Amino acid sequence: MSSNAMSDLAAATAPPPAGPPALALRGLWKRFGTKVAVAGIDLDVPTGSFYGLVGPNGAGKTTTLSMSTGLLRPDFGEVRVHGQDLWAAPIQVKAMLGVLPDGVRLFDRLTGRQLITYAGLLRGMDRDTVGERAQDLLEALDLVADATTLVVDYSAGMTKKIALACALVHAPRLLVLDEPFEAVDPVSAANIRTILATYVRDGGGTVIVSSHVMDLVQRMCDHVAVIAAGHVLAAGTVDEVRGVGSLEDRFVELVGGRSTGEGLAWLRTSSD
Ligand SMILES: Nc1ncnc2c1ncn2[C@@H]1O[C@H](COP(=O)(O)OP(=O)(O)OP(=O)(O)O)[C@@H](O)[C@H]1O
């Protein structure tokens, strides 16, 4: 066999070259006054993964996700989305992102349908496509009956769902969702999980979710990172990180801090 033919064969049988990660964080730092919120985070989120970000309250999850999506400028470090530097090319990179931020503020004097439409038009989509997708999203998220209700009159869970619809409407390559299931009822949460799993499996998208619910992350995600005090304590596939036990056990082992409640004797009112 000629050396050319051999190299052709090698090229044909070799695995396709891996593209850059959907999200790559390098040396990310953020300080608020004297408080270091994120202390040098490195993280690779593989393309096509369903990635969970877990950590105790105040660990730096929201700060990390805000810096990863262009909502907050890092003090140091680099954010790359599908290989492109976020802070060097924010407009191109943001076009690839769908974001559900923490404590989202919406134009809540619009109705649910108007808000999704507005989000789609802002993304440069044509009105017909936006209209079709708005209807699909309202149906998938069980919001059809409230499509003409002002968002200001939505419950917390409905607000979360309409914000998620706005993040999804332009079919982004990378979805970054800060606590997407908070305040959402179990049926809607299951629907959202199905939408996200399909988006990863069939649509080639990547999802990053932050959550405090370990069981949910263990069942839903294929990768996970445990963050505490602004550092990554463990990251990898869910099976790698959890080892032989549950993710919750591993989380408590890594993060520690279980309290016995002994200092709250005064709460035992029956001892009066
Ligand atoms: N704008 C801000 N100004 C001052 N400190 C801040 C600010 N944002 C976050 N912090 C601090 O940075 C740390 C990390 O906060 P962050 O919101 O990123 O944590 P988190 O992991 O998302 O927490 P939680 O799980 O409770 O939502 C906390 O100590 C918080 O008090």
TrEMBL record:
Ranges for domain ABC transporter: 23-254
PROSITE patterns: ABC_TRANSPORTER_2
Keyword terms: Antibiotic resistance, ATP-binding, Nucleotide-binding, Transport
GO (cellular component) term, any one: plasma membrane
Location(s), subcellular: Cell membrane
Entry-linked SMART domains: AAA (SM00382)
GO molecular function: ATP binding; ATP hydrolysis activity
Membrane topology: Peripheral membrane protein
Cited SUPFAM superfamilies: P-loop containing nucleoside triphosphate hydrolases
PANTHER family on file: ABC TRANSPORTER ATP-BINDING PROTEIN, DOXORUBICIN RESISTANCE ATP-BINDING PROTEIN DRRA
Name of the protein described by the UniProt record: ABC transporter ATP-binding protein
